[in-house]
Structure formats: C-alpha cells, structure tokens
Amino acid sequence: MKVAVIYWSQTGNTEAMANAVAGGAKAKGADVDLIVADGSDVDVTSYDGVALGCPAMGAEELEDSEFQPTYDSLKDSLAGKKVALFGSYGWGDGEWMRTWEADIAGAGVTLAAESVMANEAPDDDAVAACEALGAALA
User: pTM of the prediction?
Assistant: First the structure.
C-alpha cells in the first residue's frame, strides 16, 4: 500500500496534522510520501491512498495560490482511490471543509474516512483522529 499525504500549512498546525496522518498510515505498514503543495502539479496515479490537508483561509476557503492549484491538478485522478481530508482553522465553523467535501464528491470521490478538523493547533484528540485517518488509508 502506497499513501501520499499532500498538504499546505502556513502556521504549522496542518503540518502537524499531516505528520500524524503519515504516522497512522506507516503504523499500518503503508509506504508514505509527505508532499508539500507548492502550486505545482502532483501525479497521484501510483498511490493507493491520498490524504489532502489544507487550513481554512480567507472567508473559509482553501489556500488559493499554492494548495488550490495542486489540488486542481490531481482532483480528477482521485476516483477509485482511498481519499481523506484534513485541516485546521482559527475562525468560523468548518464551512471550508464542507465546501471541500462537496467539491470532491462532485469529482466522483467517496471519502474513506471522516474528515478531521482542528481548531488552531491539533490537540490530542485531533492527533488521534489524524492517525486513525492515516490508518484508514493504509
């Protein structure tokens, strides 16, 4: 099993979540690649599972200059793979995650696990949820 954890983080909160997701997948025996979204295309065809992480930005939306272009480049390649979403936020109620879940469902993707959100830095419960998310992808 090969898993990609593709994320963008401004403050380190989503990065901490990405590391927990990767740890959960590795604990189940998966080969894991951590990939920082930088606006470039990412090829996910060789992966069995893909975790995508992005914090809420602006008016509860995905980060638009680095994460969004990377996400757009791979979204159509996700159907049939195990996919999960995670990210942190500092305000609002998680609207960005609901919008993201609807967008990915519109691309024909069924999520393999419940999305994980952390308010600011992930606490112990959020870290455990991220590890479980990674395990679900493995």
Answer: 0.97
Give the residue numbers spanning the domain of 77: 2-137
Q: Angle at the Cα of 100 (from 97 to 101), degrees rounded to 5?
A: 85
Q: What is the mean pLDDT of the chain?
A: 96
Asked if residues 129 and 24 have their Cβ atoms less than 8 Å apart, the reply is: no
SS3 state at 33: strand
Sequence-distant (6+) residues with CB within 8 A of 97 are: 56, 85, 87, 89, 115, 117
Residues near 93 by Cβ (< 8 Å), separated by ≥ 6?
none
CATH number at residue 37: 3.40.50.360
User: Measured between alpha carbons, how far is residue 134 from residues 21, 27, 66, 74, 101 in Å?
Assistant: 4, 9, 23, 19, 17
Question: What are 25's two structure tokens?
Answer: 């997948």
* First and final C-alpha spacing in the chain: 6
The count of structural domains within the chain is: 1
